[in-house]
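WARN no homologs supplied; continuing
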Amino acid sequence: MRTFIAIDLLQETKDKLSRLQARLEKSGADVKWIAPMHMHLTLKFLGEIDEDKSIKIAGIIEDTAKKSQQFRLGLSSLSAFPKMESPRIIWVGVGKGNKEATELAQELEARTVKLGIPKEERPFSAHITIGRVSSPLNKEKLVKALKEAENYFGGESTAFAVTQITLFKSTLGSGGPIYEPLQEAKLTTT
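OK structure emitted
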């Protein structure tokens, strides 16, 4: 089964991201927008794992969560990979809570590598993917819309409490992926 470990987002946060998507959609660009119900912050993509490995990963998630404090996570600026001028992946970065999310991701990376899960090639970047560009159609209008919305969250409080991390199963289908939570592990309260 195809799996990943992530921070799920509150519905209110997903709604804010959905409003941003609607604003960018007006560019008429050919973008496959992520359905709000599927929005999350990936901490570690695991890929294909078997049942035995999923049990071991469940233990890692529980142990990591017990050692980690709850924290607040806030959205910051809008950006794109590889860069704003030639977007392929449209994403929203994390301001508040970036350090804590990065520490969680690094801990999970170090522990899952020991199970034979490949190490990420790029350094961790806390972000939420909101769209994937499918073709160059109306690219210039999209780039303009991205730049105009770059500080969309400026001054607006978007921080929410991160209380758990989740192991998700991802099933790819013709209508896009379907994410199913397999395990949720509560972070420690202060």
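Residues 51 and 81 are 33 Å apart (CA to CA).
OK
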